[in-house]
Each structure stands twice: as C-alpha cells, then as structure tokens.
C-alpha cells in the first residue's frame, strides 16, 4: 500500500547503511526517497553522527544524472559550454540549490557584516545581496567553465570527473562540522549532530576508494591527487574563515564549503590534464 515502508523484515543486514543512504539523499536532494522499513521518521533531520558514512555514495548517485546530461549534450553536438551548463542546471535542480543557497548566505554575511552577530543576522535573511549574487555568478561560471574545458580536453572522462568532484566536495564539506562548534544552538547544524571518528573514517575512506576507481575511466592519478588536495584546501580555508568571522559553523557554512570544494576539485584536475 502507498506510504508503507519498503524493505522486508525489521532486522536485515545493511539496514543501518541503507537508512543512512536514504537520509543523505533526502537531506541533500529533492529526490522522492520512500520510507524504508524500520525508519522511525523519514522526514526528520538526519543523524550526522552516522549518516555521513554513506555521503560518498549519495554524492555519486546525485551526480549521475548531471553527468549523463553532460555526455548526452556533448554527443549530440551542443558543444562543451552548453552541455556543461545543462549538466550544472540539472544538478542544481536535483539538490534544490541547497549548497548554492548556503554559499550566497555566507558571502552576504561574511562580506556585509561587521560583527559576528550581524553576520549571522544577515545569513539568516532570505533575501540575496550583492555579495551573494556575485558569489553565485562566479561559482556557477567556474563550475561550468571547468567542466566545459575538461570536456574539450578529455571527452567522456569529464563526466567521471564531475561525479568524483561531487563525491569529494561533500566529504570535504564535513570539515567545518568536525572542526567547529555550531553557533546557533537552535539551528539545523546543531540538531543533526557531529560525525563521529568512525563515521568520518568510513566517509573519507570510501571517498578515496571511489576516487581510485575512476582511474580506468580516464582520470589520471595525479589528477585525482590534485582534486583531493584542492578540495581539502578549499574546505579548510572556508573552515578557518568561518572560525574567524562567526566563531563556528552553520548549515550555510557547510553549503559554501561544498561549493568551493567542488570548484577546487575541478580546478585541481584541470592543472594536470
């Protein structure tokens, strides 16, 4: 019947992992993920003490449709720029511009506020300002430009790189959650909790394994190293700036971290290919 949970018996191998994957997909996207058997409340905020262990796989799933659009657009002769633009647009639609919204809010708050309190107040405002608008334009331009250049240089390997950048950036975006305290006790970032050591190790380890699995698909080893290095550098930079500007992290900071880490990953590969 409609609305009934999926999954079989209450206790089955991998149930926790599948629940965490479903929670990540719901949280990070607009995909209509059905309720699974044993889930107490599928629409509640995910428990980030465990859920991020499935974040690399969730990132891979969310990046597959845009990657397929990138290949299809290129194959039918739309050209690298148009194909890359369509791919990024599909990705934004799938996530509901979740990370882009965070980037815009952080740019407005950090750029327009003189005190931590004022910065947080600006970040809470749903309206977008000049700093946020410019940040969005530049971020989208860099992502589209990087993908178009990769498509021109590497062909189908650009789609593989797009998937890998999505995986690495989401893992890298855990940095502020692990290293900084939530600055709003009532905020979503505080409600979801912090990834534990074991969870972080699984997320990082599986992300690196997925990175190495791209080798047979045309992504060079030095390119993978560059992607990992620049994604991590971008995440650590955002974390450091957030500590200086507001003394901690919010969901918007995590979103901004993901965006800049994705750009860093793509640029890291471009320096090699």
Would you give an account of this structure?
- The model is unreliable at 1-9 (pLDDT under 50).
- The chain has helices at 15-28, 55-75, 80-95, 98-112, 116-124, 130-154, 157-172, 175-179, 188-192, 197-212, 221-246, 251-270.
- The chain is mostly helical and 273 residues long.
- It has one domain (51-270).
> How many discrete domains?
1
Low-confidence stretches: 1-9
What is the averaged pLDDT score? 90
What is the overall silhouette?
A: globular
Radius of gyration, in Å, reads 18 Å
Strand content: under 5%
The tally of strands reads 0
List the helices and strands and how they pair.
Elements: H1 15-28, H2 55-75, H3 80-95, H4 98-112, H5 116-124, H6 130-154, H7 157-172, H8 175-179, H9 188-192, H10 197-212, H11 221-246, H12 251-270
Keywords:
single chain; 273 residues; mainly alpha; 12 helices; 0% strand; globular; disordered N terminus
Quick gist of this model?
This protein is mainly α. The chain has helices at residues 15-28, 55-75, 80-95, 98-112, 116-124, 130-154, 157-172, 175-179, 188-192, 197-212, 221-246, 251-270.
